[in-house]
């Protein structure tokens, strides 16, 4: 091959390589991507999380924390043993029974 052709081809490849490197450096995304973005979200969650969960839970009234759940469970137990509920359960069991 001609030495001038090799020189031009070599300079052309160097020019293409420089264009690719500079285009990568200047045209890539400015914001965080991938793991950096995930770490930023985790840091944001830690910042907004309440510091003292026990104090926050105890700030709710006693009736809301203790009495209301107890009453709800008592009502559910009472509904289980009422005649209407027992008949409904018996009818459902009868519907799904394969024997006639």
Structure description:
By secondary structure, the chain is mostly helical. Among the domains are: 1-27; 60-100. Helices cover 77% and strands 0% of the residues. It contains five helices and no strands. It has helices at 3-27, 35-48, 53-58, 62-80, 83-95. The chain is elongated, with a radius of gyration of 36 Å. The N and C termini lie far apart (97 Å). The mean pLDDT is 80.
Kindly provide the radius of gyration, computed on alpha-carbon positions and rounded to a whole number of angstroms. Answer: 36 Å
Name the helix and strand elements from N-terminus to C-terminus, one letter apiece: HHHHH
SS strand fraction: under 5%
Low-confidence spans: pLDDT under 50, at least 5 residues? none
**pLDDT averaged over residues:** 80
Q: Which structural class matches the secondary elements?
A: mainly alpha
User: Any idea what the shape is?
Assistant: elongated
Total beta strands = 0
- Number of distinct helices: 5
Helix fraction bin: over 70%
Determine the N-to-C terminus distance. Answer: 97 Å
Largest sheet: none
Helix and strand layout, with pairings?
Elements: H1 3-27, H2 35-48, H3 53-58, H4 62-80, H5 83-95
List the main descriptive attributes of the protein structure presented here:
5 helices; 100 residues; mainly alpha
Gist?
With 100 residues, this protein is an all-alpha fold.
């Amino acid at each position: 091959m001609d030495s001038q052709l090799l020189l031009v081809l070599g300079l052309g490849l160097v020019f293409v390589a420089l264009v690719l490197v500079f285009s990568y450096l200047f045209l890539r995304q400015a914001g965080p991507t991938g793991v950096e973005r995930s770490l930023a979200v985790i840091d944001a969650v830690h910042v907004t999380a309440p510091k003292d969960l026990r104090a926050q839970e105890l700030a709710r009234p006693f009736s809301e924390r203790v009495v209301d759940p107890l009453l709800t469970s008592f009502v559910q137990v009472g509904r289980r043993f009422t005649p209407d509920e027992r008949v409904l359960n018996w009818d459902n069991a009868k519907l799904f029974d394969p024997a006639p």
